[in-house]
UniProtKB/TrEMBL annotation:
It is found in: Cytoplasm. It comes from Kitasatospora setae (strain ATCC 33774 / DSM 43861 / JCM 3304 / KCC A-0304 / NBRC 14216 / KM-6054) (Streptomyces setae). The keyword rRNA-binding applies. GO terms for cellular component: cytoplasm. GO terms for biological process: ribosomal small subunit biogenesis. Its EC number is 3.6.1.-. Monomer. Associates with 30S ribosomal subunit, binds 16S rRNA. This is Small ribosomal subunit biogenesis GTPase RsgA. InterPro entries: G_CP_dom, P-loop_NTPase, Ribosome_biogen_GTPase_RsgA, RsgA_GTPase_dom. The gene is rsgA. Residues 1-29 are annotated as: Disordered. Zn(2+) binds at residues 308, 312, 314, 319. Residues 104-284 form the CP-type G domain. One of its GO terms (molecular function) is GTP binding.
Length: 351
């Protein structure tokens, strides 16, 4: 290997003159001072589409792969990375990702509760939109609860998006989430084009929201309305795979159009919010969930856990929350909701 030759690249072995003489110092990584910052929009079999100079007139999409120095570290949609090499974005060029910035949040999933293997699906989202149809298919409250637990565990704010309001009312479902104080928005496809899409966008401005929902809830219809420049095919036969419906393979980050009336170049116009569309989740394994992270989403209950036994699940007889709530420190409905969420960690039929 050339790296340790006498004629090794300066980047690989640097000399540091001074006190200890001029011993070559190995293992100093090249600094990549020419690297550009980029956001990962999608990942397809080891090829990442990155947005370079986002929000400027030089904005372009560059295809890149991981540099060897990243090792096994994964790169996921939403990651902010450093890229080097050919950053022109011309066809057939390939850049290299040399660094992944620290993530502010990660959404993990396990395929099943018994599956210890977890994958990070999305990085740096601040909000999780849980898309549920009010009818056809029927809402699945346990699945919603599992998504909520995953959101709280990931440190994301949940947003309930209730679709197909033309088929059934939302009141009853919203009632069962009232104690959680979750932000929500109700939609119907026949009004998305007029007022509906902008009403949803108002919940998404200035941050990144990952959209999850199982097949048939109308997520594609919704995302297409939110990001009209991006029309993902619905229900079309794929000529290559012959599959009856389109299947989304990777998550995909999409920028919202600027709000109506935003001045070009203004912060509102440049930071209109991002939607990360994800493939339909069949289940949401929760084996990696840590109850102590979930309870952060209940700041009103958190002080009551001081008297809990070590590693309390907060759903066991010795949990201090019962007495604390009985003493009037918090609303019993909140504890009930927390327990309901924590109980979803145990899988049951139909999740
Ligand atoms: N009645 C009614 N039907 C809707 C609404 N939104 C979507 N649909 C229909 O519901 C079906 C599923 O919509 P999609 O947008 O494809 O749902 P999806 O969640 O993306 O599902 P997959 O494509 O399977 O991942 C389609 O036939 C839509 O036309 C709505 O608000 N009201
Ligand atoms: Zn407890």
């Amino acid at each position: 290997m050339r790296r340790y030759d006498k004629n090794a690249d300066e980047d690989d072995i640097r000399t540091r003159p001074g006190r200890r003489g001029s011993r070559p110092r190995t293992r100093i990584r090249p600094k990549h001072e020419d690297a550009a910052e980029a956001m990962i929009l999608t990942v397809d079999r080891g090829r990442m589409t990155c947005l370079v100079d986002g929000g400027t007139k030089d904005e372009r999409q560059v295809v890149a792969m991981k540099a060897r120095e990243l090792g096994r570290k994964g790169v996921v949609v939403g990651d902010v990375v450093n890229v080097v090499g050919d950053l022109s974005g011309e066809p057939d060029t390939l850049a290299r990702i040399v660094r992944v910035e620290e993530r502010s949040s990660v959404l993990r999933r396990t395929a099943d509760d018994d599956d210890p293997y977890e994958r990070i699906v999305v990085a740096n989202a601040q909000q999780m939109a849980i898309v549920t149809a009010l009818a056809n298919p029927e809402p699945r409250p346990r699945l919603i609860d599992r998504c909520l637990v995953a959101a709280y565990d990931a440190g994301m704010e949940p947003l309930l998006v209730l679709t197909k309001a033309d088929l059934a009312p939302a009141d009853e479902l919203l009632e069962s989430y009232a104690a959680l104080g979750i932000d929500y928005v109700v939609t119907r496809a026949d009004q998305l084009e007029t007022v509906g899409a902008e009403a949803v966008r108002e919940h998404l401005r200035g941050r990144t929201t990952v959209f999850i929902g199982h097949s048939g809830v109308g997520k594609t219809t919704l995302v297409n309305a939110l990001v009209p420049e991006h029309r993902r095919s619905t229900g079309r036969v794929n000529a290559v795979t012959g599959r009856g419906r389109h299947t989304t393979v990777s998550a995909l980050a999409l920028r919202l159009p600027p709000p109506p009336g935003a001045k070009p170049g203004s912060k509102k116009a440049l930071d209109p919010g991002w939607v990360i569309d994800t493939p339909g989740f069949r289940s949401f394994g929760l084996s990696h969930i840590d109850p102590s992270r979930v309870i952060h989403a209940f700041p009103d209950l958190e002080p009551g856990t001081e008297g809990c036994p070590r590693a309390c699940s907060h759903d066991e007889p010795d949990c201090a929350l019962d007495a604390w709530v009985a003493d009037g420190h918090a609303d019993p409905a909140r504890l009930y909701s927390l327990r309901r969420l924590l109980a979803t960690r145990e899988a049951s039929e139909g999740d």
